[in-house]
Predict the 3D structure of the following.
Amino acid sequence: MESDVGTLKKEALGAEYKHAGFLPLGSWGLNVYATSKYYTDVLGHHFKRDIEDSPPKDNRSANLYMIGSSRDSDIFRAQADLLDDSTAEWRIPRKGIASLATGRSQVLVFRDDRPPNILIYVREPQYSHEAFHGHVFEIIHKILFMFRMFYMHAAAIEWSGRVSAFIGDRGSGKSTICMRLAKEGAAIISDDHIVFKRNRARFLVSGCEEIGRVTRKTEDAIFGKRLNIKAGRYGGVLKKQILLADYFECAHFKDFPINDLFFSRIGDKFGIVPISKSEAVLGLIETTRPFFRFNRMEDYAEYLTYFSELTAKTHTYDLTLTRDLNDLDQLAVFLER
């Protein structure tokens, strides 16, 4: 593989692709080129959006090539001893190039290119639909982390120059928090998925989507009326999908320095409690654990260092919400202070 990377890159960049588009990931993004629509569909599914036809004019991005290859191809000849569900460590065949061989793919990242070029050779046929989904998702997260970024299930708002992120599971109130605070004057960065980026000594956050979804209870509390939109089932819950910018001030796909981290959940009594940095690191690990498998202690150490430095730069809190949405008034008062 070491001697062939230049040839592989030339062939990949010069090929024609039937399927292409843009995947925004916060302020960053991927210009996606694929030999199969299935590959772009899988990416879109995991990042909860369609692969758009073309990138925005000011996008800061990388090029991602997803190329189907026979399992007997020379590309996979060095992988004969790898198990199908294994993930090997990053290797550096040449300066500025990183490679990752797994049981189902061969990844090459040309880090010094401007923009960076990322090649993912997909071994076909796939063993199962579910296995391929999980494998691709993990690889993309590893690539993001290589570029000092972390994709997370969380919401974020900017209010009077201060940026707060709300981290929690589905149903922990993230969308409702954002919309309620936006009524007070906050700008919604994202109500469901964000990207953290380490930029030298700073940590930045950007939003990944423009869409919000509201339950009937949130609809009544936030808008005071029923929206003329057909409801659908999302994650088994009946919700209405809206374009957030139609109703609120928004600041999607832009970088903001992060100030506060709130770990939100639903409980019996509203409360905001400062937590230690070590507790916050544990909360981040719990949230992101499904995205990573570590093959080296060095990888795990980098992961812990990233979160330790992030929490050191922020104020960290546990946030307990109740089913009474009027309690969000107390959160607004807290943030105004």
